[in-house]
Amino acid sequence: MAPYETDDSAQAADEADDVRTGRHRAARYVVPVAVVGVAAATIGLVPALASSGDPDLPKVTAQQLIEKIAKSDVQQLSGTVKITTDLGLPDLGGLASGFASGAVKGDGGSSADPQSKLMELASGTHTLRVAADGPDKGKVSLLDNASEYSVIHNGKDVWGYDSKSNEVYHATAPESAGAKGKAPHDVPATPKDLADEALKSVDDTTSVTVDGTAQVAGRDAYKLVVKPRQSGSTVGAISIAVDAKTGLPLKFTLTPASGGAAVVDAGFTKVDFSRPAASTFAFTPPKGAKVTEGDDHESAGKTPRHQGPDKAFPKGDESLRKGDKDLAGLDGVKTIGKGWSTIAEFDTGGKGMPSGGAKGSSGNSDVDGFLNSLGDHVTGKFGSGTVFSTRLVNALITDDGKVYAGAVTKAALVKAADAAH
């Protein structure tokens, strides 16, 4: 089926302001996408959605479709989501999980803490079972061959349970956790979580069009496509399959500008909009399970996991409070540029990693060779450094300890470092 709109249509320019207005409505449902560790602007598209034929649906504009997402009021659902992530990193499998769990445990925590599971979603293919019943009941289960990990939000309680280790994590849900469609404890589990973040990035540097229809999980859907207009971005575009009846995003797929396989591909394979059984959200720690209280962990001086937005970002930096909040995790972080070409800049306060240049800078040829295998040595007005790359996000670490990172090309990072010199 031919696209309903193209980027160079006469209507596209007239809709630019309307799209930005719709973006603000959609932003009400934002959920952080910690799994990829970057701002939502780093998210892109796959060319086509798996379908069993293009359904014949009434024509809609991009603005109308964004508003449909923003107005979506799905309160109950259950289903299965398949998510594949390919950042071009080795498939760490259990190593990533073990590293995350060890880091949490070393801090006095639990392998059942949801934060310890995020790294597992950073590579490979995973199956999630999700359910929701209103703003105060939600469940996400990560299924493995011989085990299952679940996060359950039921009223004031948030539970995490790791059947493999028989550990339980318990915390009190923050008052703000009742956002519609939000996965419990900020676990980025559904296409909606990803789509809401992506729509937050729509501005005048972005093209938004409707590109036909598809069927996802047996549901008729429209395909919304978001592409950066700027050069220098590693992002290709965003494709979101939007349920024609409810407005709920059913599939979200991501590829880089360089093409190839999707970087993130998350979509429902099954979905049911009837109310799940109340027992779905009931949880009692199994006999013999180790239970860690999240509130006790925080009061002991550990990193808080339920910070409000005003506490999560450096004071006085209004540009970060209003804009690239996902880049504000480090004190002193600054942003260069805007839109899809935004680069985060911060100083580590010390020496950077040895660049492994032609002459070597570490004093150890083995170390230099190893670093060369991980990244590319670059030079410029800023001096020298190493660029470490994934299929989507690149980071330049200079020899004097400065870091420049974003969903931009290596050349864009070097240019930013030179300009800041």
Q: How would you characterize the overall build of this protein?
A:
By secondary structure, the protein is of the alpha+beta class. The chain folds into two domains: 10-299, outer membrane lipoprotein receptor (LolB), chain A (Clam); 311-420, no CATH class. Helices cover 20% and strands 30% of the residues. The protein contains nine helices and 18 strands. A twelve-stranded mixed β-sheet has the order 7-8-9-10-11-1-2-3-4-5-6-12. Strands 13-14-18-17-16-15 form a six-stranded antiparallel β-sheet. Helix 1 (10-26) runs parallel beside helix 2. The N and C termini lie far apart (51 Å). The relative contact order is 0.16. The model is unreliable at 1-52, 92-107, 176-185, 297-329 and 355-362 (pLDDT under 50).
Question: Descriptors for this entry?
Answer:
421 residues, alpha+beta, outer membrane lipoprotein receptor (LolB), chain A, 2 domains, 12-stranded mixed β-sheet, 6-stranded antiparallel β-sheet
Shape label: globular
Number of domains: 2
Structural class call reads alpha+beta
Rounded mean pLDDT score:
74
- Alpha plus pi helix count: 9
Distance between the termini: 51 Å
What's the gist of this structure?
By secondary structure, the protein is an alpha+beta fold.
Chain-wise SSE layout:
Layout: H1 10-26, H2 62-71, E1 76-85, H3 94-106, E2 124-133, E3 137-143, E4 148-154, E5 157-162, E6 167-172, H4 191-199, E7 206-216, E8 219-228, E9 235-243, E10 249-256, E11 264-272, E12 290-293, H5 294-299, H6 309-312, H7 318-322, E13 334-336, E14 343-347, H8 365-374, E15 376-380, E16 383-389, E17 394-398, E18 402-406, H9 410-420
Parallel strand pairs: 6-12
Antiparallel strand pairs: 1-2, 1-11, 2-3, 3-4, 4-5, 5-6, 7-8, 8-9, 9-10, 10-11, 13-14, 14-18, 15-16, 16-17, 17-18
Helix pairs in contact: 1-2
